[in-house]
Amino acid sequence: MFSHTAFAKELGGLPFDLIGDFERKMVSDYGVRRDDVAGYSGMARRTIFIVDRAETIRWTWVASREQPQPNYDTVVDEAKRVASEA
C-alpha angle 72/76/79, rounded to 5°? Predict the structure, then answer.
């Protein structure tokens, strides 16, 4: 949660919430659970979901070997687009 706060602050604030999954329920429900890293069973694959006010996933990014980090400008642009359509 502290990293979420720092990330949002660095961007000058965000018009949406960032959530954490301490119980690892969402990683299973959303299909991004990793069990291939010894000692970290249930760890989430680095993923971004942008969810609208109706709780519909509108945009997703999932890390891969080719793209281990998202294009943060694209993430912010997509979030703004979804927010403006609400």
Answer: 135
pLDDT at 2: 74
- Asked if 52 and 85 count as a contact pair (C-beta separation under 8 A), the reply is yes
Q: Is 29 exposed, middle or buried (0-12, 13-18, 19+ CB in 10 A)?
A: exposed
Distance CA 55, CA 60 (A): 13
Q: Which two tokens stand for residue 18?
A: 């960032």
pLDDT tens by residue, 12-47: 998 878 888 888 898 999 999 998 888 888 888 899
Alpha helices in 1-86 (DSSP H): 2-10, 25-29, 72-84
Spatial separation of the C-alpha atoms in residues 39 and 33, rounded to whole Å: 14
